[in-house]
Specification:
single chain, about 120 residues, about 50% helix, mainly alpha
Length: about 120
């Protein structure tokens, strides 16, 4: 029984070590998608209203709050996602479109934008 338990633990540890590069690659892919959506004027168009400290964001708007101190402003990442999904829920007079509620962005794109902006 002890050999079986040791074998199972070793197999699980090996699987986690082998999966680590794939997880890191998936995270990088998600950040790249989030950045692409954020900067793309035909998709999320976040850049038209929100300033962000990214060298590729050369024409940021100033209508919405700047994307900074996101971890401090949104300690719970789910609240940030909910804000992106439907900003009208917290502020009915907002000019931010409900990106998820109106299917402007897919679930995957919203998750990617959340990850991208959360690093600032």
């Amino acid at each position: 029984m002890r050999k079986l338990t040791t074998s199972i633990c070793a197999a699980g540890l090996l699987a986690m070590v082998m999966a680590a590069p794939a997880v890191a690659g998936a995270k990088e892919d998600q950040l790249a998608l989030g950045k692409a959506v954020y900067l793309n004027k035909s998709r999320g168009n976040c850049i038209s209203c929100h300033a962000i400290n990214d060298p590729d964001a050369t024409q940021a708007g100033n209508q919405g709050p700047p994307i900074l101190s996101m971890k401090m402003r949104f300690p719970d990442k789910r609240k940030l996602r909910a804000q992106i999904w439907d900003a009208t829920k917290n502020n009915p007079l907002t000019i931010m479109p409900p990106l998820g509620k109106h299917w402007i962005l897919s679930e995957e794109e919203i998750d990617a934008v959340v990850e991208y902006v959360y690093q600032f």
